[in-house]
Write a structure and sequence with these properties.
Length: 155
């Protein structure tokens, strides 16, 4: 959870790209240097709420493993502050680890907190078999995420 907060604060302070180490850039990514605004993309865009809930996600989930932020964009700082407050909540005894993480941090909370422009799943979400996203060789894809989700235990 603290890494979610840290990446927002780092990009707020310095601006630029945040990309997880398990993302393989595509040729299109090499051409991208900067944007005029902070941009997040969808990592999933499920056809139904039920399909999303089966994965422990929201229907349209923000990709937090790759985003571009403008330096000192106050929205990034506000997101970090809200996530910081959520992270102090203790896990309930009857709550699965997966549900706890998604209710206090992660892409679910990013999705609830970000209300500005979001790019389609074909940009950030390629290679994600759970989201119905396109393959990584799709022309619009910026990077292929090799996420395995090994920490997840859905109950």
């Amino acid at each position: 959870q603290y890494s979610d907060i840290s990446r927002l604060l780092a990009i707020y302070e310095r601006g630029g790209w945040y990309v997880d180490s398990d993302v393989v850039p595509t040729p299109l990514c090499a051409k991208l240097r900067y944007f005029n605004e902070t941009l997040f993309g969808l990592e999933s865009n499920f056809a139904s709420m039920q399909e999303a809930q089966n994965m422990g996600m929201v229907q349209k989930s923000i990709a937090m493993w790759a985003f571009y932020g403008k330096r000192h964009d106050i929205r990034l700082l506000k997101m970090a502050c809200k996530l910081s407050k959520l992270s102090t909540r203790k896990r309930r005894k009857d709550e699965s680890l997966d549900r706890y993480i998604h209710s206090t941090s992660g892409p679910t909370q990013y999705s609830f907190l970000w209300s500005s422009k979001t790019l389609p799943v074909s940009v950030f979400g390629c290679g994600q078999s759970h989201s119905g996203s396109p393959p990584c060789n799709t022309a619009s894809c910026w990077g292929c995420h090799k996420f395995r989700g090994s920490w997840r235990v859905i109950s």
